[in-house]
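Technical annex B. To support the medicinal chemistry partners, we prepared a structural model of the target in complex with adenosine-5'-triphosphate, based solely on the information shown next.
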Amino acid sequence: MDAKPTIVVNIVTPDGSVYENSTSLVVCKTTVGEIGIMPNHIPTLAALAIDRVRVQTTEEKFDEIAVSGGFMEFSDNTLSIVASSAEKREDIDTNRAQRAKERAEKRIEEAKQTHNVDELRRAEVSLRRAINRISISNK
Ligand code: ATP
């Protein structure tokens, strides 16, 4: 009998490879919604949201990786994710993310008061990154 097909998953950032595995299911959030990738899925290219990537390891378990946006590309049963930053759940420093959240909230308040639209947008993205890390590490 032929072995069941699997997907090879690679998550890379400018600092190098963060995660590599093979699996039969990956679930990630694109900017237009959630997508589940199984072996032999059609070739796909999509922008990723600041969210989690879930990689099934056993029937009921998933590895979770926080990604701060980026792109996913799937073809020939290889899923490549290129993200500006990514952390495996167990590598997330929750206290650091909490401090980043507080800093971002403060920046948002200041940007609102000074009507600084660019700074407001940057601070909101920082806040989303921090909340994403906190929510993944707290699971
Ligand atoms: P901070 O203000 O705490 O640096 P940030 O959102 O500005 O947070 P990034 O620019 O997204 O940080 O990431 C810089 C580097 O630090 C990346 O390698 C990223 O993986 C890592 N990193 C950021 N926050 C955390 C965290 N809470 N736990 C573990 N690694 C983190």
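Notes passed to the chemistry partners:
Residues 104 and 114 are 15 Å apart (CA to CA).
Residues 7-89 form a domain with the ATP Synthase; domain 1 fold (CATH 2.60.15.10).
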